[in-house]
Each structure stands twice: as structure tokens, then as C-alpha cells.
Amino acid sequence: MIRVLGLDVSKSSVSACLLTDKPEDPRQFYYECPFFCLNADVHGIQELLALLPDIALLEPTGNNYSKLWGTHLARAGVEVRLVGHKELRNYRANHLALPDKDDDADALALACYYFDYHTQPRRFGQISDRTIVKIRELVLRLAHLNRVQSPIINRARQDLAWQFPEVALVKSRRGESGEVPLLWGWLAHERKSTRYDRLYSQSVGLGITDTVRLHSLRICDLQREEHAIEVELGELLADSRFEHYRTVFKKFGFGDRLSAVIISQIYPIEGFLGADGKPEVRIILGQNSKKPTKRHLSLRRFQKALGAAPSLEASGDSRKSKVVGGSDLCRKSLWQWVFTRIEPRRSRLQNEIGKILGEQLDTEKAAGRPVKLVRNRVAAKGTKLLFKELVKVHYSPKILE
Questions:
Q1: CATH number among 3.30.420.10, 3.40.190.10, 3.40.50.12780, 3.40.350.10, domain 4-123
Q2: Which residues contact residue 285 at a Cβ distance below 8 angstroms, ignoring those fewer than 6 apart?
């Protein structure tokens, strides 16, 4: 008899539902079930493991909340599976007819979900290995540091506009060895610069205040932390398992940051392929044309994971397409890649990929389409080319014919 534990994770506790089989009437069982409320402390973890589950199901709530519970379960030898938010919401409402969302209802739905779909692996989210989890952690930390820095830098520049206007718009970057940016280091008294000394002695500004120097110190600290994370990311990306991926990424002009973001979402590529190890393609009748139409399911899953798969919404005569699901960070990173490596002619990739994407971008812009739409379409095309290149590297080119 298998013991299945549904866990709905909150900030400092979990709601748990333990089942040995699926109840005949889940809605009625909801009112009778002895749910467990476990706190995120020593006693809570002990009570969790004392339930002796064989399998635990959670929603992927990121590193902040579910990591604690999932890690302790995995260390105790419990198989941990993930169920997507959208999938659980539809299952709870449409299949189980449980009450409006609450923690206990979600815990029960998670446990029931296993009994209905345990033979369908694609119904569950992928459990990544430790290296991928660490890469994802570092990528998110870098994104957080970027969000933290931006308002501090903006505030400092606004103050410099009247304190030392000659340098207010200077773009000062960190050195390759990790040295803090010269401007912020000079303002924080961490680096020397005869040029800035000379400019300041002749400045028309009203003088640098302690506030700007404190902001500069914060920026230097954040820059050092960024560099340390980038070094660690570089070491993780040097893993031999990622060699083929990085070979492909170089063709697209991806830097280490974007490479890490993408690897954290799509490794291993085999997870998007069919049971035979090939891209999954199905022939179905088109809804409008009624003609046999190819559906590239593996490609679609790949693009969705990267946040680049548009979904069609239709209501009456209205039909519109928008991108939903996938990684927001990845979507933004791909947009920045288009903006910096495809759109500017002077820095455009000098290969077939740059030619294909560049021509599409130029043609659509010349046709008067909105720039935001054009960049999104080019990013989606880029992910399509990326999938084909990754499959080529791992498998015979005949698979793509």
C-alpha cells in the first residue's frame, strides 16, 4: 500500500494530506479528512517524516518556501514530484469540484492528482539535479541584485546631476578581474582616479554629499557580490554535461548569464522529446482548415519553458495571441538578447542565425509592425532555431528531416 502525501506550502508552514488511495467522493472527504498543519521548525519536520510517506507532491513555489520541505523529504528517501499551478487549479476545480482555493483543498488535490496521473510522467514537473537547482538559484540572485541596484544607481545619478554633473551620466563598468566600477569606487574612496580628481576640482557642481558616497559604497558591495556569483556560475557551466549546449549557445551569441538562464530551464533537452528520443510531432485536423496539420509538440514545450510560446485566445469574433507561461526571467533575457545582438546592425551575429533573424526583424519593422511585437516574434523564432540546433548536436540530423 503506497502512502501519498499532498503538501501545500505556505511561508512558515504546510498543510498536509496523507492518502493510501483516492477517496470515492473527494468533496465529501474534504470535510472529514484529518489534515495536518506543520510549522517550519524542528517539530514540524519531525512530524512530517513521522507520517512515513512514500511519495510527496508539491507545487513549484520556488526556492524560498518549498525548498525546505522538499529537501528534508528527499534526504529521507521520499520521492518528490511537482505539479504545476495551472494544472492543479484546473484539476481541483474541474475534476474534484473542491471548494474555493484554500490550503487544505490544495493538499487534498495534490494527493488525489497522483492516483489519477501517476502513469503519465509529463503530468508532473521535472525534478532537477543539484547543479541545475544551484544554477537557477544563482540566476535568480543575479536578477534580484539587478533590481536592487537600479534604483540606487538612478538616485545617485540624480544627485550627481547637481553635485558633480560632469560624471552624472558616465557609464562605469566593473573590470574583468572583478574590480568595482571606477566611478563608483572613486566616489566611495575605494579606487583612485587622477581624471576624476581633475574633473572634480574644475566642476561646476555644488559638491558631493555623504549620501552619494554611501550609495556608491552600496553599489560597490553589490557589484562585488555579482562578480562572486558570476564566477560561481562560470564554474557550474563548465560541467562537461553542458559542453554541447554551450557550443550551440556560442552560435547564438549568448553570454554566461543568458546561457545559465536557458540551461536552468531546458536541461536536459531529452525531457522535451518523445519516448523514442526524437522530437514529438503529431498530425491532427486543423480546426479551421479541416486539413491534416503538423503539431510540433516537443518544440512547443521547449518554447513554452523559455516563455516564448504564444497562446491563442478566441471568443466570438475576437481572436488574439499572447505569450503566457514559462519563465518571465528567460522571456526578458531573450528580449534583451534580440535588442542587443540581433537588432543593431553593427553588433549583429555574423552567421546564418544572425542573417535569418536579422532579415526577419528588418522586414517586419519596415512593414510598420509594432517594435515590441517584432522583437517578441524574433525571440520566438530564435528559440525555434535554438531547439533545432540543440537536437542536431545531441542526435542525428536525420531526426529533423
A1: 3.30.420.10
A2: 291, 292, 293
